[in-house]
Amino acid sequence: MAKKGWDEFEIGAMLRTFDGKIDDIAGTQQEDRAYSENSSYTASVADWRLIKPIFNKDYCIDCQFCWIYCPDVSIIARDKKLIGVDMDHCKGCGICVEVCPTNPKSLLMFPEQADEETEIASWPKKDEEEA
Amino acid sequence: MSEMKKIKNLKEFSTSADRFEGANLLCPGCAHSIIVREVLNATNDDLILSASTGCLEVCTAVYPYTSWDASWIHIGFENGSTAVAGAESMYKALKNKGRLKQPERNPKFVSFAGDGASYDIGFQWISGCMERGHNIMHVVLDNEVYANTGGQRSSSTPIGSSATTSPAGRVSYGEKKNKKDMVSIMAAHGIPYSAQVAPNKWKDMVKKIQHGFSVDGPVFINAVSPCTTEWKFDPKDTMYITDLSTDSLVFPLYEIIDGHELNITYRPKNVVPVEEYLAAQGRFKHLFKDEYKYLIKEWQERVDSNWAYLQRREESRV
Amino acid sequence: MAFDKMELKDIEVWDGNFAAAQAMRQCQIDVVAAYPITPSTPIVEGYAKFLADGYVEGEFVMVESEHAAMSGCIGAAAAGGRVATATSSQGFALMVETLYQASGMRLPIVLNVVNRALAAPLNVNGDHSDMYLGRDSGWIQFDAYCPQDAYDLNFIAFKVSEDHDVRLPCMVHQDGFITSHTAQGVHTLSDDVAYSFVGDFKPMNDMLDFEHPVTHGVQTEEDWHFEHKARQHNDLMTKVMPKIQTAFDDFEKLSGRKYNIVETYDMDDADVCVVCMGTSVETAREVATEMRKEGIKAGVVGIRVIRPFPFFEIAKALKNVKAIAALDRSSPNGTAGMLFNEIAGSLYNTEKRALLSGYVYGLGGRDLTKAHLVALFKELQANVDAGKVTTQLQQFIGVRGPKLAYL
Predict the structure, then answer these.
(1) Mean pLDDT (chain C, rounded)
(2) CATH C-level class of B21-316
(3) pTM, to two decimals
(4) What pLDDT score was predicted for residue A128?
(5) Do residue B22 and residue A40 have CB atoms under 8 angstroms apart?
C-alpha cells in the first residue's frame, strides 16, 4: 500500500478488513469476500520462502491434516477436497509435508525455483519399508 | 443461544471459511496461528477479539495490514482480557437498550494472549475478568517464554530451559523455577470452564472451545504453542514437537468444570519418555551434559507425579 | 429493562462529586468501568446507587484497578457506546499508559478527575499533580472551579468528545475535597433537557457492527507512526476549540450559564493579574475585587480548557496587563511551572509582553489564603512600579521554613 500523508487515512489508525458490508463471514469463502487493501490477504509473503510445497493430487486422500495444521491459511480446501496451496501466503515451513500420511506423500518440499510439472512427473514411488 | 457448529470430522471441519488471514508476520511454523484457526473455526458465530501485546499481536496488525476478519482490538501488554470484557459489557448494555445494529447475532468474545501477558504482566486483569463473570474466553498461547522480545523467561518457563534472562552457562542449567500452574489458579476462581489444549489434538481442542462458547461465564484455555524460534527446532517439526508435548504428558490435556470437576481428555496409547521431548529442543540441549542429567530424571518424576495427581483428582470426582 | 427519571429541584445542594455523578446519570452512559479512589470515590458510589435504585440502565463494571478501569472503558468505547469513569491521583497515574492508548485510538471517553497530590509522600488532598501528569496524553482537559462547573462541564465533555470530527477522550477536572466534597447550590437541568443537550450516542468504527469488522490498536513503526501522531495533534490543534466554543454557546442558550475557553475577571483595565486554575480562581477573584479598593487594578484569568492549550486566547486576555503571576499547583520538579512556561510561550512573540513571574502553591491540599493573594498582588504592583520583576521568577508560597525562590 502506498505510504500516505498524515491527512489521508482513518483516525486512530483504525483498519477495515473489507470494502463495504460483509453479511455472513463464516459462511463466505475467501474468494467471495471483498477484502480491502488493508487485509493481509491482499499481501504476499512468498519472498520469505526458500523451499516450497508441491501438491500431487494423485496420492491425496483429502484427510485435511495439512489444512488444519497449516499456520498460514495456505492449504486451500473446498468441499472437503484439497485443491491447492496458496503460494502468496505460504512461508515454506514444511508442516504440511510432515503431517501428510500418504505413501508416497502428496505434498513434498522443493527448492523455490523448482518446476511443478517436472517434479510431479518424477514424484517418488511408494516407500515399501515405511509401508 | 445459537446453534453449535457441527464438526464431526476433519473433512467437515475443512469446509470452514477462515477468519484469520495469511501474510501475517508470524515465523514460519509458528503454532500460534494454528491454535487461533482452530479456536475461530470452532464457531460460525460472530466474533469480537482482542490480543495482548506479543507475537500474535505484533504480527497480525502491523499498519497498514490486519490479518483479522472479525473486529479485533489491542490495547497493551496486560489488558487484552479487560479490553474484550469492556466490549462484552457494551454488548450487554446495547442489547438491553435495544441499540444493537444486528440484534439477532450471538457474538463470542475471545481474548488471546501469550504466557507472559497471562501468567505475568496481565495476571491481575485476567483474574479480575474471571472473578466478575464476563462472558469471555481467554486463550493463552503458551510458548513458555517472552518470544516477541527475544526469549526472556516468564513464570511459564519450565525448569532447565535456557532463556535469555535465565541462560544456561558454565555454572547454570538455565531456568531454576517450576512453571506456574495457571489452569488450576484460574479454575480456583470458580469459573464454569478451564482447560488445557494442544493444537495437534484438534478434536479435543474444538470440543473444549465449543464447550467454552456454550457456557455462561468466563472460560480459561491454556494452549501449548511450541515456538520454533525459542524452543529451537526446525519449523517443519512444530506438530511433531506438539505430539511429544502431549504424549510425554508434559502437557496433559484436561478440563476443570465449575472450578473443581477434573476430567482428563487425552490418554496417550504410548507414553513417550520426557527425555525424548527435551532432546528434540535446543532450549534443553545443555541438560544432556553429564552434570545435569539428574535434572532429566527429576523432570520425568515431576511429570509422572503430576499425571498421578490429575488422575487422582479425576477419580475422586470432587 | 428500563430506568426511572429523577425529579430534581431547580437548585440542589450538591458537592462536586455528586454533581458529576448526577451528570453521568443524566447522560445515560452505556458502560462505566471504574475503581474507587479518594477523593473521586463518591462519583463511583453515587453512580452505583443510581444503578441500584433503577435510575441507570447501562453496565457498571467494578474492576480491580484504575488501569483495568480505563482498559475496560477503551474496550467498551471501541465496541461503540457512551463510556465514562472517574479517578484521582495514584489511580490516574496507574491509568496513564491507557490514557495515551484511548486518545491514540481516537475513542470518546469522559474521565472525571478529582485532582489530588501524587505520592511520595502519600497525600489524599487536592493539588494539580495528576492533572499535570495527563497534559501530554492527547486528551481534552476541562477545569471546573466549583460543583456547578463540574456538573455542566460533564455535558459539554460528552458533546465535544463524541463529535465525529473530534473523537478524542475528555477529562473534567475538579479540585479534590474543596470542590469534590464541598456542597454548594447547583442549578440543575431536568433529565430530558440534559439528555437532549448531549444527544444520542452516534457510533463510529464500532466493533459491534458485525457487518463492518474493524481492527483497533495496530502497530505502527517509523514508516507510519509519525503521521498518525501528527494527525492526532492536528485535530487537537485545529478541530477541538471551535467545537468547544459551539458547545459553550449552545449550553448558554440552554441553561443561561456562560463558559469561556479562558475565563477573565476584571481584565478590561487590569494592570496586574493572576492566572490560575481550580478553586483558586474564585479566591483570586474575591481578592482582586478587594485590591481594587486599595487602588491596585487587579484581574484574574482562569484556564477553563487546559488541553488544547488556549495559546492565542490567553495572549489576548493578557495583552493589556503589565504584570502577570502564573500560579502552579504542582511541583515542577526542576523547571518553571507549567502555566509559567505556557504563558511565556503564548506571549513571547507578541508586541507587548507583560512582566511574568511564577508561583508554586497549595501542594498536598495546603490552603491558598486571601493573605497569600493580597501579598502576591502587591508584589505584582511593585513589579509594575519598578518596570521589572523584582523577585526571583519562581517563588513558593505557603510553605514553612526559609523562603524558597529560584530562577
Answers:
(1) 97
(2) alpha beta
(3) 0.97
(4) 80
(5) yes
